[in-house]
Amino acid sequence: MAIPRRRHQHHHSRVRFLFPAIFAVSAIILFLFLFLSILAPSPNDDNHLRHLRRDDSSEGKSRSNENRVSLSRVKINAEVHNRDLWSSKNSKFFYGCSNASSKFAKAKTITHPNRYLLIVTSGGLNQQRTGITDAVVAARILNATLVVPKLDKTSFWKDSSDFSDIFDVDWFIKHLTTDVTIIKDLPLRRGQIWTPHRMRVPRKCSDRCYINRVLPVLMKRHAVQISKFDYRLANKLDTDLQKLRCRVNYHALKFADPILKMGEKLVQRMRMSSKHYIALHLRFEPDMLAFSGCYYGGGDKERTELGKIRRRWKTLHNSNPEKARRQGRCPLTPEEVGLMLRALGYGEDVHIYVASGEVYGGEETLAPLKALFPNFYSKDTIASKEELEPFSTYSSRMAALDFIVCDESDVFVTNNNGNMAKILAGRRRYFGHKPTIRPNAKKLNRVFLNRNNMTTEEFSSRVHTFQRGFMGDPKEVRPGRGEFHENPSTCICEDAEAEKKMDWDHRKNGKDNVAKKKDGDDRKKDIEAVVHDENVDYEPEMADPEDEEEDEDNPPGEVSLGNSKTEVLSNGTSTDYDSSMPEDTELDELLSD
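Structure tokens predicted for O-fucosyltransferase family protein (593 residues):
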């Protein structure tokens, strides 16, 4: 009996030592797994897009190929989602209305003699357009004569164009005769040229702000020039002043004949190739991407290149690409725009016009979009060099050509929420709510990240859901939300019979009425859910680095109170005004050959 007992003791001893050994090995494996997880790139960082397949970055190449959606599978029938591809639902019941009320006095009765306002705009074409529009309203508030605005010639764009080179100056003056007195040049004073007093006003200065801050100086000096005039007028004004904004922006600012005629030629050529066309304003320049702080899968080369550009802006903090993407602050890639459009129902036979500057990554970045939409055009492909020569050395004139083609398109799409996107969104609302697709980047980011884990139908359904409220339909944005130039709700009127007509349509459908009502209620809930995700609150405003230090200073008479500012009035009291817009202005319209 001794031998079996000895064997049993020996076996028990081996088992006793085996458990600690297994535990130790397991602990080592777990430690190695955690260590490798820390070293591995974040799936939300390197794995989101993988669209810039750089020749010298195997990292970018491998990621681009591993997560590619089969482009041929993205063919969705728009009728399933009950939406017309080329028009906005119920748009026929809404129209632009900007006529002055009977209480709005004529310019000749309220304009004071020897009171002249001059302004110098800032930025690219569309930023200047907002400045010109607001300058007319500011002159009206001050009961002053407006001298035709000067355009920015010194910043990044280095465009030497004058007002009359881009806009029809005679039409501008004549069309606004009853609203504001406008002259081409400051008149001589005692037979001599005189220099106006120069000053600055804070961002989003209200009408009361102008009266208390500018008017006393104007009464004393008789001529005042306000520089850096972009977004220098409050977003919310009384109804007649808002309607004046619309008359300026949508009726008085007409492009000069050479630009208008060339733009019309481009539109005609797009119409000759197809009954309908989409215009895409694509912001994917190195400057834009660097400023946004986003990452697009180009590896160390991309980080180095864009990081170097980003350092031009001294006030920018270190970027957090993952956070920026979650917040919807990253412009969509060309491929993402294409996937979104295909999911919304636009087929590969659709013709697309692309207005863009220098695309980061060049043709390689554009290749996926061209694969999705082979009928791909730009002003350089539908016009000869000789035709474009009078405009090609002027960035604002080239931008104006793109503006015309985009404005006349059946559907306008943007991958960003910059100045041109905002201006055109507002203009297209005013002139009949033509479809205007702005990506809900915050929500779409999740869809793009997970698109290989869902069917084509699921992908399309998600895109449709998240794009509700971002398609240019009537009433999709609440009145007063966002910039007035983007959402001119004061200037959009509704047919008095609209509700009755729409109700009649429901009754006409009989039994389908209940189902449609339920679908409408669900849609309303979806819109309410996504409207809070509008990108307007997150969109970065790009600045000319040369202006950065000057814009950081508080203007005289202004007390900084954290994120708000208080205007100190002459009577010792103070009034808050909206200064939520960043001091930086957007680097817009980098349109080169």
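The radius of gyration is 29 Å.
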